[in-house]
Amino acid sequence: MELSCPISAERVNESVIRIVAFLVALITLSCILFSNYWAMLFLVFDFSIRAFTTRKLSILKAISIRLAKSFSLPPKMTDLAPKKFAATLGGVFSLFIAVFYLLNFQTIADILSVVMLCFALLESLFAVCVGCYVYSFWQIFVKNNQE
């Protein structure tokens, strides 16, 4: 089975996405170390902005764009659709983590946080977007069920 992202006219700079993922990893690590659900609620908000709007209100995206320019990182354009899907999954994951922290289910929240940390580090360090793979599998699943 070959994985491929559907082609769309909307593109996004992968260098910026990787910096965003690194910032998400740092915030998630702070949540694990300090049981800081406020930071996780911030991630819910930021992921939601990136997943459901086209506005440039995402704080992490704004910081990442400035960092990419500061380090003169060359733009590498990639399809936006799987990245938006991955941001949606990140928002849902962050919401579950925040709820588990608020309900004092520390162990479950920590386990989910470690999983999210691993996914964010895979994206930032190795350009492996787990959400994009899920998106590709989802597209194959939908396509096969429509036939």
From TrEMBL:
<dbReference type="InterPro" id="IPR025508">
    <property type="entry name" value="DUF4395"/>
</dbReference>
<protein>
    <submittedName>
        <fullName>DUF4395 domain-containing protein</fullName>
    </submittedName>
</protein>
<keyword id="KW-0472">Membrane</keyword>
<feature type="transmembrane region" description="Helical">
    <location>
        <begin position="85"/>
        <end position="105"/>
    </location>
</feature>
<keyword id="KW-1133">Transmembrane helix</keyword>
<dbReference type="Pfam" id="PF14340">
    <property type="entry name" value="DUF4395"/>
</dbReference>
<feature type="domain" description="DUF4395">
    <location>
        <begin position="12"/>
        <end position="138"/>
    </location>
</feature>
<feature type="transmembrane region" description="Helical">
    <location>
        <begin position="111"/>
        <end position="138"/>
    </location>
</feature>
<feature type="transmembrane region" description="Helical">
    <location>
        <begin position="20"/>
        <end position="45"/>
    </location>
</feature>
<keyword id="KW-0812">Transmembrane</keyword>
